[in-house]
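Methods: example folding runs. The two proteins below were folded one after another, and each record is reproduced exactly as written to the output file, sequence line first and structure-token line second.
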Amino acid sequence: MKRFVIQLTVLVGTWIFKPAIAQDSANTLRAEQVLELVRAFHPVAKQAAIQVGQAEADLVTARGGFDPVLGAYVARKRFGGTNYYNRVSPEITIPTWYGLEIHSGIENYTGERLDPTMTKGQSAYVGVSIPLAKDLLMDKRRAALKQARIFRTLADTEQRLVLNDLLMNAMDAYWQWVSTYNQYQLMQANVDINQQRLDFVRKSLMNGERAAIDTIETLAQLQSFQYQQNQLRVEFRNAGLQLSAFLWTAIGEPYNLPETIVPPADWDNEQITKDFDLDLASLLSTTQQSHPELQAYDFKLRALDIEKKLKFQQLLPKADFRYNHLSKGYNAFASVPESPIFDNNYQYGFKFEIPMRLSAGRGEYKKTKLKIEESQLAQMQKRLELQVKIRQYHNDLVNLREQIKLQNLNLGNYLQLVKAEEIRFRNGESSLFLINSRENKAIEARQKLIELKAKYFKAIYGLQWSAGLLN
């Protein structure tokens, strides 16, 4: 009987140190596999990609403000048997980046009662429209295109930000799933071992080798482990459901993670995170330069700066000049060699207007400046929050690394106590109660070690997330 108890205890010790689980790699799920699946198939990731597509469509729309425009005016009036006029005048207008508009067209104007300001017969013109004050340095078309380019890049940044948060949530669920699975497996092994122990004690009782109280002691131990096993199995299943919420198939259907899929046996091997940057100074520098949330503020401030320049135009008077060079016939350049631009064959117009109080312009300009100030303050606050978050995760990481070392030592000490209790038992100086008590402490130490290791890896991914690198 002593030899059997010692064998059972040694077997328990093996499971306490590291449950030896035979696994098929096809039935395991690693952290990097979860990240790949979430990136590829999660609806939120696809929605972020759609936002990028919408920003590209907005950019195409903004470029439309600089598309050449072809138009035509056709009119005819006949009344009381009199042909007043027939007019056909197609025109093409070409906007340019600097606010100028180049236009050219032809006219054919005939009839018996014509407007004397119009040129009778066939004529052509080529000219330019120039804003001399308002809209000279910035106008709505240029502002829209510049902002659309910024928002297109901003969409990529926001996609990174969305994925960064989504992947961190997935990692939270994954490491909780890993922790509950290993806790459950540890307790399942202890239930099996204690069931064997109970069977042996009952036989010993029948043979008169043990007291009846020993069966109660062994049964109480078994029932305690069975209770914990049932509780941990429910927690493992629930953790699997939480993780399944992040797993989708290629055809866009949710995937329910079966219990046959388990974490890998080497889940606590730090080599899986060997490519991660864990240096505090490096992470703080990277965050300052490339964190998507800070970059988003940069792009928003650039867009607001363009809006500020556009609003400033409302403080300027509107002074537009239009000039056309005229030619007979349909050749718009036929008379160009004959006369300078203000000598003959020309038409020009000048329009000037300005609000007397500029109330709308002053209000819009001030509001934009306040938006910029607000965004700058928000960016400063966000930069500080990210730095604090990185330092917190790094502190947790360093502390957990030390805690794991201490817990490993603590576990080793408890295992030595178990072995010492075995020796005392062989010498008749101990009992099953004391061995069970020692084993319980060792199991609790192993459970705590599993929990600490899961938190440690979660902190590693959290550190990458806080620096904006998880995506």
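Second run, written to the same file directly after the first:
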Amino acid sequence: MPYYRVVGEVPRKRHVQFRRPDGGLYAEELMGEEGFSSDSSLLYHRHLPTAIVKAEAVTPSVETTLRPNLPLSPRHFRTQELASAGDLVTGRMVLAGNADVRLSYATSDQPSELYRNSMGDECVYVQRGRVRFESTYGVIEAGEGDYVIVPTGTIHRWVPDGQVNVLAIEASGHIRPPKRYLSQYGQFLEHAPYCERDLRAPTEPYIVSGEEVPVLVRTRGGLSRLVYRHHPFDVVGWDGCLYPYAFNINDFEPIVKKTHAPPPVHQTFEGPGFVVCSFCPRPLDYHPEAVPIPYNHHNVDSDEFMFYVGGDYSARAGSGIDVGSISLHPAGFTHGPQPGAVEAVIDAVARGVTATSEMAVMVDTFRPLDLGQGALSCEDPNYAWTWAR
């Protein structure tokens, strides 16, 4: 994270004696990235965060294997057709992935168990509903349009308030704001499409008592369940630059040009081998002869995974794309508006239309995406041929 925060009780100096009311010492836990050479936070626990009493291997409850996108083809997946497969962690249905990132969809109204992803950061986008994110750092109340960034190793759980639909972006490393938006010291610059004021993080400790508490842990070796002697949510205070936070897509400030701008202007986060972009309602391109719609394009180094989350997709009219759809346009395929869409939008501008209403979350990956069973089970088999109609 680009700036320092302190929550709850912490001593004046780091790594000095910090005593409980009963005279015992609070237990420090330093959460640090990149071999403690990058961002970190120091948490103070009532009990030892190292004390476990049991460990067991866990078999995933959903299919996680991937298959190549062969024959090479643009794809359309209808997430509206996916039923709940569990909670927002164990019920994630894998849509696509590679060595850098795994993209999954989940819908649930059930609380998850405590979970720690020790493979990488997660970016969980809330498409519909409201959910309470509980963690060792505290609580974040999240709702429709929120990205929730969860640092590697954070013990947390999701508590839905009714039915919740999410897209889970699971990285092999760390997810951060793009470097070009930040100063050399980590402050958001004036040209950035969002800033520190738009980010929401825990504001107070969240303490839960309990003994022999199970935590599901994901590592490169698979899933395990560790049983902790005391509940991990016993942190009385923490400080540092590493913590979970939420950012709402509606706070993204679109960058507008006279003519149509390419996708990098929509970039919101970056991870190892991928970027996340937010396509938000914005004024149309305002050159008097502009074609205010994406041109046919071929991102030669990336696969483009686009989740349509709201608004009107006039550029895709006739393709079957609607709210809840996901398109996958792989490298090796040129894509763009549907036939007739350019003319239709130019006519709409002539009638006085001045802004777009579409909203989408896009993940561009720099290695090919393989396909998961979740995507294959809700695929529209006719999508690839819609440009030829």
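Comment on the second run: Helices lie at 341-350, 373-376.
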